[in-house]
């Protein structure tokens, strides 16, 4: 039998590392982490999540608390509540007062302001030759008695005797008379309106309304009390839309903001802006002072774009954003937006804050809370992650 020869074996080759290539280290891929490393990683992730959740919460808390403490509501919370009043307290020492003539609410008769223009292209100012007296540096001689609202016959066609008695009592109480309410003088004081023909007298009267012997805060409290009492005593007259009752209620509620606007001074001339307005023959800017009473600025008015009117509009905008004042400023809510639109159209963007009453505050509040909710949602999602 033929047997094939065996196949030759392959030559042995020696495999040795190349001398110029370093030996590669062993791979660590797939090796499990030690228990201590796992614990550290878990603690690190947990700490990061808590930080991402707590930091936004702290920021939100600081923001909200700061806005609260600096706002009017916070101060109202800390303020001592005013002592409840009654007719007995209000009429104390008030028997020496007498009624004066009253004239029905006149049409706006004031004139425009002449302060330096701040923006836009103002209409040329027309002024009288009479110089405007400066703000008194010391108490001037005030007329006695001081002009008061309803200085004509107060008898009206009241629907109820209780409302008539309310007006009679209010106009005879020192709590009302000593506050010299400009908001009511503008509409219902014949003596005050006549004083516009005498700038020296008007200047003294404005000083008197801005510097009452009764503190302003107390006067605001007094007028709020009268406004509440009027709504109770004159409920039937309000229902019947009695003009005198409705305009008086609006003016009582607008006491503070009207006083603030009327007491603005022009720092360049040291004069009352209101007195400056009366001297001018263009009545456009003067309408702005009666806005809190629900008397709007005519669409045909041509504001002079004065610094005074800009300040007046700033006071109104702030009042409408003040939760302590805005709810009762019914007259200003009705007149502000059209006046602001007109002022911006005539004087340029930024001259007045254009917004619906309370609109800016509402949008600002919504955007703030929306942002806060978004931060909380993102933080919650991160915290719920692996």
UniProtKB/TrEMBL annotation:
The keyword Ion transport does not apply. Residues 108-132 have a biased composition (Low complexity). Pfam families: DUF7729. Keywords: Membrane, Transmembrane, Transmembrane helix. Residues 145-355 form the DUF7729 domain. The chain crosses the membrane at residues 50-69. Residues 133-148 have a biased composition (Pro residues). This is DUF7729 domain-containing protein. It comes from Hypsizygus marmoreus.
């Amino acid at each position: 039998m033929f047997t094939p020869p065996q196949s030759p074996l392959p030559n042995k080759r020696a495999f040795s590392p190349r001398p110029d290539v370093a030996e590669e280290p062993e791979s660590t891929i797939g090796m499990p982490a030690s228990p201590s490393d796992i614990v550290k990683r878990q603690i690190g992730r947990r700490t990061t999540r808590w930080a991402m959740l707590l930091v936004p919460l702290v920021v939100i808390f600081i923001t909200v608390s700061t806005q609260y403490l600096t706002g009017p509501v916070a101060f109202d919370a800390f303020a001592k509540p005013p002592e409840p009043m009654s007719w007995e307290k209000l009429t104390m020492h008030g028997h020496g007062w007498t009624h004066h003539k009253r004239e029905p609410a006149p049409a706006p008769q004031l004139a425009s302001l002449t302060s330096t223009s701040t923006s836009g292209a103002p209409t040329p100012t027309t002024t009288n030759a009479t110089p405007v007296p400066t703000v008194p540096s010391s108490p001037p001689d005030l007329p006695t008695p001081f002009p008061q609202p309803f200085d004509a016959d107060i008898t009206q066609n009241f629907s109820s005797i209780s409302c008539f008695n309310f007006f009679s009592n209010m106009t005879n109480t020192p709590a009302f008379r000593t506050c010299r309410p400009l908001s009511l003088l503008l509409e219902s004081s014949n003596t005050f309106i006549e004083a516009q023909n005498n700038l020296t007298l008007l200047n003294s009267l404005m000083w008197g309304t801005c510097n009452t012997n009764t503190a302003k805060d107390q006067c605001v409290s007094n007028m709020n009390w009268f406004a509440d009492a009027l709504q109770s005593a004159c409920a039937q007259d309000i229902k019947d839309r009695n003009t005198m009752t409705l305009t008086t209620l609006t003016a009582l509620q607008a006491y503070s903001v009207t006083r603030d606007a009327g007491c603005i001074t022009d720092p360049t001339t040291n004069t009352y802006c209101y007195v400056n307005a009366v001297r001018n023959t263009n009545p456009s800017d003067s309408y702005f002072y009666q806005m809190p009473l629900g008397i709007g600025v005519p669409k045909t008015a041509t504001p002079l774009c004065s610094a005074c009117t800009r300040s007046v509009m700033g006071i109104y905008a702030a009042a409408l954003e003040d939760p302590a004042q805005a709810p009762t400023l019914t007259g200003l809510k009705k007149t502000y937006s059209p006046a602001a639109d007109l002022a911006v159209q005539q004087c340029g963007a930024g001259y007045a804050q254009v917004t619906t009453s309370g609109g800016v505050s509402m949008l600002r509040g919504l955007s703030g809370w929306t942002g806060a909710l978004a931060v909380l949602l993102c933080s919650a999602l991160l915290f719920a992650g692996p």
